[in-house]
């Protein structure tokens, strides 16, 4: 039998490439030939300077996967920098040329932001699937939004903090939707159009496992999300998370000296930045909690706006200037502050780590679940506020820090939630539930598990 061949197209951003690489490994494990088609960022984008290094590392770590950097589109050669969605649309021409050059392609697997490329697949007669790197719960809401918007007669923003009740999700505030959906502008229309295009695909691979999101998976399969057409087949193939590799980082040596389940790990993603005022509130709360902590601190953004895709990232933080005077000295036996980055998977899996304060990005959420840790939820941007709803209300794997949607989360709230999760009966019960969910996640991936079976079913349908 001929080897099946797939092309993965992750679009822009490391946050989208990383989970797609885990999917690539899954294909390779099942004997499928995989090519990852990459889009080089435009000059001036934050990712442009280290793009070659990212590709080289990915290729070195995945020798069985072919990586192909698409040439920039002719239309962009002398044009000013474009909005990234427009740029991805221009990349359809080089993508089409590349697919035509291959002897055979059994499937094109697209990132959600590359939804327009479904037309390229249709033109070439290639089955098109989407890999949805967020969870099934957000997918269920996302696929519901076009029909909900069409029946509302108003914008989502006008609902304010009013509660939305959809049959596919627990109740949530309208303001928990991603900002781009609330803005009610051309970008909103583009995002809703993405949802409609995903519904036109041959199927959707989701980075989750069924026991984690039972309600959402049932809603997707029962057709509750798309009322006017059949929902494509949904394959829950996760949790797909990065493997640990960095065993030498200083913070791991520090963790080695701490008692089991004693440390709260605070990390808020590659674009998660806070103002100096907020950093100081966190510091005071951690110190007063008396609990051990490992905290990744990034420099504040250059403005009050949230970090956006393509913008330059802030430089290395000056901890002495950002944190309260004497904080590092006073807490040197209580905690460790790390600049900009820590090996998250290794930290979460360390025996000393007992809880995870997170921005609720889906990759980080799954990594926390795979480590069996309770989650302290502090959503910042994109779909993270909705993820917080699902984590707290549906999965029962975390608690929220009050004030995440205000100017600052107060030191008293940080102190109270850290104490609660580390030293209360409620926190202990949450930890037990998280440990049980970890077992279900591992079982789903094993042969005979739900995620393994779903991926085999998907391959059989190619």
From TrEMBL:
**EC code(s) of this entry:** 2.4.1.-
The protein's matches in Gene3D superfamilies, at most eight in alphabetical order, are given as:
Glycogen Phosphorylase B
> According to the lineage, what is the superkingdom?
Eukaryota
Instruction: Report the InterPro entries cross-referenced here.
Output: UDP-glycosyltransf_plant (IPR050481), UDP_glucos_trans (IPR002213), UDP_glycos_trans_CS (IPR035595)
Q: Read off the Pfam families from this record.
A: UDPGT
Write out the entry's keywords from A to Z. Glycosyltransferase, Transferase
Q: Does the keyword Calcium apply?
A: no
Which Gene Ontology MF annotations are present? UDP-glucosyltransferase activity
**Record PANTHER family:** GLYCOSYLTRANSFERASE
Q: Per the similarity annotation, which family is this?
A: Belongs to the UDP-glycosyltransferase family.
Name assigned to this protein: Glycosyltransferase
Which species does the entry assign this protein to?
Urochloa decumbens
């Amino acid at each position: 039998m001929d080897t099946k061949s797939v092309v993965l197209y992750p679009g822009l951003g490391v946050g989208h490439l990383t989970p797609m690489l885990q999917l690539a490994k899954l294909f390779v494990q099942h004997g499928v030939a995989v090519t990852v088609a990459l889009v080089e960022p435009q000059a001036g984008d934050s990712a442009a300077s280290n793009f070659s290094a990212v590709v080289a590392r990915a290729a070195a770590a995945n020798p069985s996967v072919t990586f192909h950097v698409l040439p920039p589109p002719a239309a962009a050669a002398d044009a000013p920098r474009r909005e990234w969605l427009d740029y991805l649309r221009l990349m359809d021409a080089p993508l089409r040329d590349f697919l035509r050059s291959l002897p055979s392609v059994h499937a094109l697997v697209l990132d959600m932001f590359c939804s327009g490329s479904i037309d390229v697949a249709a033109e070439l007669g290639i089955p098109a699937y989407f890999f949805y790197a967020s969870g099934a719960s957000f997918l269920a809401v996302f696929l519901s939004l076009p029909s909900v918007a069409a029946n509302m007669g108003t914008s989502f923003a006008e609902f304010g903090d009013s509660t939305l009740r959809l049959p596919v999700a627990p109740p949530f505030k309208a303001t928990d939707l991603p900002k781009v959906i609330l803005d009610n502008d051309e970008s909103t229309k583009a995002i809703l159009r993405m949802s409609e295009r995903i519904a036109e695909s041959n199927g959707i691979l989701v980075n989750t496992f069924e026991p984690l999101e039972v309600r959402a998976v049932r809603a997707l399969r029962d057709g509750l999300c798309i009322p006017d057409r059949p929902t494509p087949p949904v394959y829950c193939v996760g949790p797909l998370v990065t493997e640990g590799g960095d065993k030498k980082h200083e913070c791991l040596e520090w963790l080695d000296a701490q008692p089991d389940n004693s440390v709260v790990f605070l990390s808020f993603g590659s674009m998660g930045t806070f103002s100096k005022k907020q950093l100081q509130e966190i510091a005071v709360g951690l110190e007063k909690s008396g609990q051990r902590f490992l905290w990744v601190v990034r420099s504040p953004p250059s403005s009050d706006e949230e970090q956006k895709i393509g913008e330059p990232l802030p430089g290395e933080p000056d901890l002495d200037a950002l944190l309260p005077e004497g904080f590092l000295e006073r807490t040197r036996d209580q905690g460790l502050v790390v600049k900009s980055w820590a090996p998250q998977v290794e930290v979460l899996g360390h025996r000393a780590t007992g809880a995870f304060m997170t921005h609720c990005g889906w990759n980080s959420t799954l990594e926390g679940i795979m480590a069996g840790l309770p989650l302290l939820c502090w959503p910042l941007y994109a779909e993270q506020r909705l993820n917080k709803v699902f984590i707290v209300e549906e999965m029962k794997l975390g608690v929220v820090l009050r004030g995440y949607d205000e100017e600052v989360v107060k030191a008293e709230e940080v102190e109270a939630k850290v104490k609660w999760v580390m030293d209360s009966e409620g926190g202990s019960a949450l930890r037990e539930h998280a440990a049980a969910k970890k077992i279900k996640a591992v079982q789903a991936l094993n042969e005979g598990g739900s995620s393994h079976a779903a991926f085999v079913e998907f391959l059989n349908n190619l």
